[in-house]
Write the structure tokens for this entry.
Amino acid sequence: MSTRRIGVIGCGYWGPNLIRNFVEIPDSEVVVVADLRPDRLAFVQGRYRGVYVTQDYRQLFEMGLDAAIIATPPATHHALAYDCLEHGLHVMVEKPLTLKSHDAEELVQLAEQKSRVLMVGHTFEYNAAVLRLKQLIESRELGEVYYIDAARLNLGLFQSDTNALWDLAPHDISIILFLLDSVPVSVRTSGSSCVLKGVHDVVFIHLEFANCISAHIHVSWLDPCKVRRVTVVGSHKMAVYNDVENLEKIKIYDQGVELPESTNSFGEFQCSYRYGDILIPNIRFSEPLRAECQHFLDCINQNVTPRTDGRSGLNVVKIMESAQQSLDHGGAEVAILPTSFTQMPALGAIEFSGVEGSLG
Ligand SMILES: NC(=O)c1ccc[n+]([C@@H]2O[C@H](COP(=O)([O-])OP(=O)(O)OC[C@H]3O[C@@H](n4cnc5c(N)ncnc54)[C@H](O)[C@@H]3O)[C@@H](O)[C@H]2O)c1
């Protein structure tokens, strides 16, 4: 298999992580990095000798590349990804794929026309703990899923050109769609602009799925505690994924509530509560971004559709757009209408490797 020649556009906070991974993976060579800021290009030159740097991303099109990685601010994703696809490159774009769903649809269509891989950086779908949660749901160990609750809270980083919804929620939305393997039918969103007028720093999203499952996401730039948590409550068991924990990232609670079969009167009504063991699976954790970058290269080499392809990027953007609409209309329910592109990608081939169970 020939080494894939890669160009990276955007080397701010997140770009260096992508550059490092593609430099370290033997199947790829980072040939060029483009950034508008000379200080970021100097950083690349200081760290990676032999990598060409430029302020003009269009130079990528003259360097015989196979693929472009885009890690610039979201408002620039559509134009940059479009140009790279037009020039015949495979493209990996950071989340969110775009800010508007029609822009995302255009990218999906263009990638299909050009037979190029279009992948979006929904990193958590490559995270061993999230894969373990999905395995717990698919094996029905948790029983029927009642609801999912996600929280992504922190103090900062305040930004004036986006809000906590667009900054933080794409991760949780992609995790929830991945876990449930379906898209919601409607969304309601409320929030507050506490610090900067007009910039929502605290947001609550409620997603309703067709099969009566609901999901709630709380994102905030204004919380004293760093929280990164996803709770899946099922009819048999409950599981909590706590990304802030170093080792015990997942806890499976053998706990639940059962209704009595029948009662004659209110006085006889009594639920039975089950308080069983708490299992802490041993998850062999490796860097999710490494798995994501390797998957992108594998999809190019094997001509297969990525797990987080353009369509899954589009699904997340559609939900974000509808969530923002609801926020703008005081929490009104907004229907999420399916398009021909919004079927979930086939997920059959996901490997649940690196996951072992043990009593904690
Ligand atoms: N997957 C994750 O966990 C994760 C984490 C953080 C950020 N991100 C995503 O990564 C992307 C970048 O975020 P960031 O925090 O690194 O932003 P950033 O502002 O720190 O960096 C963006 C860089 O892009 C450069 N840039 C902008 N327009 C350009 C252009 N036309 N050509 C070349 N360079 C250009 C800027 O100069 C800047 O250095 C965003 O989409 C963000 O959502 C993903």
Observations:
- The radius of gyration is 22 Å.
